[in-house]
Design goal:
- With about 400 residues, the chain is mostly helical.
- It folds into 2 domains: about 180 residues, MFS general substrate transporter like domains (Growth Hormone, Chain: A, Up-down Bundle), CATH 1.20.1250.20; about 190 residues, Growth Hormone, Chain: A.
- Helices cover about 80% and strands about 0% of the residues.
- The protein is built from 17 helices and no strands.
- Helix 10 runs antiparallel to helix 15.
- It starts with a helix and ends with a helix.
- About 0% of the residues have low confidence.
């Protein structure tokens, strides 16, 4: 018993290491340049992104079921293997078809880790009788992940200055270590009984009962989808917004690195903030700030207006911790990863619907007008969704 206890405790620091290694995506600041250097047109690049999104959406729920039925540890291991294969394909790639293979591997890696990571750490804490510390642990996870991305962005830019293939090459040894770390995890035993022979049909019946018959989970999933897609869409508006504000492109990298630091700190201390505010105030605040940030960006434009985006980064870090904690508390371990795959699935659907609408608003009107309209729409949607939730609470 003591040995298992120690193995479970070791899961936590090993998981932090796993997230740090996974976050070292050195390619981030040079990926478009790399594609173009290898002869891809912008249309081909966007086709690759579309294929990636389709794979992610299609695989979300099946991979969530895999994690619940076969094991979260195995899902994290498969993510490590696919991520390593993706980087090897990028290093060897010289044309569209090589990069198509790399994109498929990378999308599969993302699908297998989606839901399994959060479920793995929550089940570990639950087995230790420490599930109440989930917000703190997951906050630390997002903190380490965000700091890793910040460092990787700076290092990747420097490596890409020498050779655009170097960032991908540099990731391979770190992802090989990722495989070793995932092999060392100890699979926590869920307190709820679960048959590994259970079919995906039975799993989806359990998800239906948990999600569609549980109004609280259903509203949290919708709530999360609106917040996540709003932040995701805003990300693609940052660069044109900075350009409009007069910020020199040479500072974009530094600004984006700062964004990730803000997100990291927000996630790390989210458990303290949430305990002070409480669940109801936290949920209301997230929607108000999201709406406010869009409106401020649409109406305040000067060279330092990028600081307004700090609000989005706070929301991103805070919401990723507290909303997942709320959902975990309403979900059984036997379908935990599947429910979180449903969460990611809904978020991707909302993003796919919201992104073209925002693009149309920017094309037909102006960027400031589009931002303002989005702020108003999100504010109204938040009010409609949150009020019934608060009444039930």
């Amino acid at each position: 018993m003591e040995i298992n206890q120690k193995k479970l405790e070791n899961n936590i620091w090993k998981f932090y290491l796993y997230e740090i290694l996974y976050s070292l995506m050195f390619y981030t600041p040079i990926i478009i340049l790399f594609y173009q250097h290898n002869g891809l047109t912008l249309t081909q690049i966007m086709v690759l992104q579309s294929i990636s999104a389709i794979i992610w959406i299609v695989m979300e729920i099946p991979t969530g079921h895999f994690a619940d039925s076969i094991g979260k540890k195995k899902s994290l291991l498969i993510t490590s293997v696919f991520a390593t294969l993706a980087m090897i394909a990028f290093v060897l790639g010289t044309n569209f078809y090589y990069f198509l293979i790399a994109t498929i591997f990378w999308a599969l890696a993302g699908a297998f880790i989606s839901g399994a990571d959060s479920a793995f750490i929550y089940d570990t804490l639950k087995s230790l009788g420490k599930e109440n510390s989930y917000k703190k642990v997951w906050g630390n996870t997002v903190f380490f992940y965000s700091i890793g991305i910040s460092i990787a962005s700076v290092v990747g830019g420097l490596l890409g200055g020498f050779n655009l293939r170097y960032p991908f090459l540099a990731m391979i040894p770190f992802y090989l270590l990722l495989i070793l770390v995932s092999l060392s995890f100890y699979e926590p035993e869920p307190r709820e009984t679960f048959s590994k022979q259970s079919s995906i049909f039975n799993s989806m019946k359990a998800v239906k009962k948990s999600v569609f018959q549980n109004k609280k989970i259903r509203q949290l999933l919708l709530y999360s989808a609106i917040i996540a897609s709003a932040i995701g869409v805003a990300y693609w508006l940052y660069q044109p917004y900075f350009k409009l504000s007069g910020l020199d492109a040479v500072y974009f990298g530094l600004v984006f690195a700062t964004f990730n630091v803000i997100k990291a700190l927000s996630a790390k201390y989210s458990h303290i903030i949430e305990e002070l505010l409480g669940q109801n105030t936290s949920l209301v605040l997230l929607f108000l700030l999201t709406s406010l940030c869009y409106i401020l960006m649409g109406n305040i434009i000067f060279i330092f207006s990028f600081v307004i985006v700090f609000i989005f980064q706070f929301i991103d870090g805070f919401s990723s911790v507290v909303i997942s904690d709320y959902i975990h508390k309403e979900t059984d371990s036997t379908i935990r990863a599947t429910v979180f795959s449903v969460k990611s699935f809904i978020e991707h659907i909302f993003y796919a619907l919201m992104a073209p609408m925002v693009g149309w608003l920017v094309d037909v009107y102006t960027l400031p007008q589009a931002l303002t309209v989005m702020g108003i729409i999100i504010g109204i949607a938040g009010f409609i969704l949150v009020v019934p939730f608060l009444k039930r609470n």
